Amino acid sequence: MREWRVVDIIVASVVSVAVGVIFWAWSAGYAGIAVLTAAFPPLGGLYGGGWLIAGVIGALVIRKPGAALFCEVLAAVVEAMLGSAFGLGVIIAGLVQGVGAELVFAAVLYRRFTLPVALLAGAVSGAFMGVHGSVTSHVAWALEWKAVYVALGAVSGAFVAGLLSWLAVRALSRTGALTSLASRRAHTERAL
């Protein structure tokens, strides 16, 4: 069953709003990261995984086409509405990052929600974040710096968005909070 139900829309929206608040707080913390990485700014890519959580967790919870994109974009809209330091550009960034995660879940036909798939979704989303940042915010960087930024974004995406989202969904399903969703038995599914 690939069609979205009302409960899917409601849960995806609630998850997105909650993660949008996290995005906003994560953005506020970036000023400190920028200071810490001033000697080699591409290291900031390691911080990027926090902005990728919505797409991965949304797809893992809803398990339907469009969930990663919907959740990542809506979370970015919430972040923008709360007054992100990055302005309305976060919405475009959310779109790009959501597409990255969505492509991975589409590649497995929305049928596999294992740890490797979650890690790959986070990594691809992180790579998309890195490429987007390289062509919009870091245009003056040398190509080598951009490559490092993309690679570190992918690493951060895999571990922060991929691993943490996968663990969170397993924990949520254990509580019974996902009873009306396809992810209700996530805690009993094989990791691989």
Number of helices: 6
Which structural class do you get from the secondary structure elements? mainly alpha
Shape: globular
CA-based gyration radius: 16 Å
Please report the total strand number as a whole number: 0
pLDDT < 50 runs, ≥5 residues: none
Percent range for helical residues?
Answer: 55-70%
Give me the strand/helix succession.
HHHHHH
Q: What is the CA-CA span between the terminal residues? A: 23 Å
DSSP strand content: under 5%
Q: Which oligomeric form is depicted? A: single chain
Question: What is the mean predicted local confidence, pLDDT?
Answer: 96
Q: What kind of sheet is the major sheet?
A: none
What is the total number of structural domains?
A: 1
Protein name: Membrane protein
Keywords: Membrane, Transmembrane, Transmembrane helix
Organism: Cryobacterium roopkundense
Transmembrane segments: 7-27, 33-60, 67-85, 117-135, 147-169
Give a quick precis of the structure.
This protein is mainly alpha-helical.
Structure report:
It contains 6 helices and no strands. It has 192 residues and is mainly α. It has one domain (6-188).
Outline the secondary-structure elements.
Blueprint: H1 6-36, H2 53-62, H3 67-81, H4 89-107, H5 115-136, H6 143-175
Helix pairs in contact: 1-2, 1-3, 2-3, 2-4, 2-5, 2-6, 3-4, 4-5, 5-6
Keywords: Membrane, Transmembrane, Transmembrane helix
Protein name: Membrane protein
InterPro entries: ABC_thiamin-permease_prd
